[in-house]
Amino acid sequence: MLIRKFYNAIYILEKYYYKYNYIFIWLWDIEVGNSINFYGKLQINKCRLSHISIGNDCTFRSKKTSNWIGINRPCMISTHSPDAKIKIGNNCGFSGTVIGCFKGVYIADNVRCGANTLITDSDWHLEDPRSSIPKEVYIEENVWLGVNSVILKGVKIGKNALIGANSVVVSDIPANVIAAGNPCKVIRNIDF
Questions:
Q1: What phi and psi, each to the nearest 5 degrees, are found at residue 25?
Q2: CATH, range 2-189
Q3: Which of 65, 86, 132, 170 lies 20 to 30 A from 18 at CA?
């Protein structure tokens, strides 16, 4: 009996977060497709006049128990300038992923982001003379980002690339390769 009450409470909380996420998406004027799945609370910070769009059949896992590798934080999407653009394609999955955008982050269809990944197009300290201007990030179709991967500004990751766990991507990665490391380097090609 107690276990049933516990599972009912979890079900009610999941429904609350699901509605909460859609309310905030509506309030922030974000374009969303059909069948968006939320596990836990998605955090959104949208700069006025910036643009965020999310395609069909995307999944956001922000709850620690929704991914067995271990999510350290909720999914976060943020824009920080009026001309910033985040475009997420169809059938993408995110687990504790943070996307921070000053200029442009473009994620194509069928991209998988492992637990605790970070995608950013800026150094974040724009007033510091050591940092350079934000540069757009492009992640093409069917890319898989391993757990704890960091994708930094100005990077383009080609189709079907697989980025290994704990990698820091600082330069372009070609299509159809496995790449890993800090800095991330191509290890071998993948035959399709």
A1: -60, -40
A2: 2.160.10.10
A3: 86
